[in-house]
Hints:
The chain is an alpha/beta fold. The protein has helices at 11-20, 37-47, 63-69, 88-96, 109-129, 138-147, 151-163, 184-189, 192-212, 240-256, 274-286, 288-291, 309-324, 330-344, 349-369, 377-388, 394-413, 423-434, 441-448, 452-463, 467-485, 490-496, 502-513, 517-527, and strands at 2-7, 28-34, 51-55, 78-83, 101-104, 171-180, 216-221, 226-233, 260-264, 295-297. The strands form two sheets. A five-stranded parallel sheet has the order 2-1-3-4-5, with helices on both faces.
Amino acid sequence: MWKMIIADDERVIRNGLKRLLDWEALEIEIVGEACDGQELYAQIAELGPQLVVTDIRMPGMSGLEVIRSCASLSDGPKFIFISGYEEFSYAKDAVRYGAVDYLLKPVAASDLQAAVEKALAQLADDLTVNIFREEKDELQQVFWNLNDGFEYAMEDLYERFAREKLAVSDCFFVGVCFSLIEDDRLRSMMSYEQQGLLRFGVYNRIVEEFRSRRLGFLIRKEESLCDVMALIPRDRRDDFVQTLLMPVYEKLQREAKVRLCMGVGEPVEGPGQWQLSYRSAKFACELYYFVELPVIEFPGPDREYTVSFDDFNALLDLSFRQITARDKAALATVGKCLDSIRKIHYGNRYAAVNRVLIFSGSLLEKLFSVRLVEGDFAARQNELQEAVRYMETFSQMRAWLMDYYRNLLEDIFSGGRHRATGEMVKVQDYIRQHYNEDLSLKELAGVAHVSPTYFSALFKKETGENYKSYVTGIRMEEALRLVLGTDMKTYEIAEAVGYNNVRRFVDAFKNIYGISPLEYRKKESQKS
């Protein structure tokens, strides 16, 4: 049974969550309840649950403070946050700290069930990692002791080299990092657990190959990476990658029938610099996500230092302005935003992915705020998170996101949120062409060739909203474009979008966007 703690400062919410699902059928035992963040953290430390369902705002410590504090635990639980606050900043922070999901109160049973099943799937996947937690061999242990400052480590080192029959007197050292390149074929043929077992077997072959050739020893073997320290004769310094490492790399790929990435670290002279070579090899291997080269020597392809966070934020604002103005250049600007993320976070996969999620969340939040996108914000963001987080390369993620935004913008630009059929399509087109005129019920009914009495009901049935709100929505979209893209005065914008009364126009604008046209323009100019 999985162990779970429920936390909320309201007893009725805690009791409701306990009754909401058949926890026993999910093989989950509720081992604790907490009414504040401090009590929750104490129970996590004492009871060791695998799953926590908690309110995000509680007395003592917030849910976010608890998940941050649990980051130091070796086997911390999976978190599902619930909240009565539909604020993107909470969802964004929850994602950043590794929460499984973020649900709004009142929590629907189907939403909680989906979040719990997602958490259980992650917990099952995490079990695979345990096969990599084996005892360190002698030289592997020396490596970590040496870098942790143990005084005896250096004295022990050369004795253990001799025991392993490794000739080091005329060698330099190079960290070498291997990872398995996953692809659709591999994922379709194997479960996540089977993939973990495959990696384990391949990494064992790597270690054995280096040992049998007296070429090096294991540093670390984990789920995603296998790190070895290679011993290279000094007379092979110029060609060791091609003559010593590539034969091993090619043999492993051929015999194991897998694709490998190999990162080659900075060559160093002695054990005191092993950590530098190990870290540089790991960095080189992780560059595969950005450059898609199977063999990468540190420091890898040159990085471009041509983009700043200010540049990125300017592109984000520009993409929003272009979308509200229905400018077809918006998609290209989204692409530039993604390219700037790649340049800013080059070499740090997790920072790049998180920045993409923050970018997408910020842009969607803006589009929701001006009603260009409707529906469930959390569901849309969750779809993005699930799609991009586990993609093997940045280019794959970029291609998926460009398709996503291409479809989204086509929907926005075509008025997809008000789709209709038959004569109502003609009416919508007519409204878009004549929104700045005084459109009467009789006039629009005439376009649809129906009676005025029947028109209102038919329009709502076909489009999901009444015709007056549709006309107002079209006018406000154009008004926003003029507010952001011109220096027209408020009364001029009102007249341009079909209002003879400025007060009525300002009230309509505030009803849609929350503030007046003048305040909106001022707020956006301050961001720029």
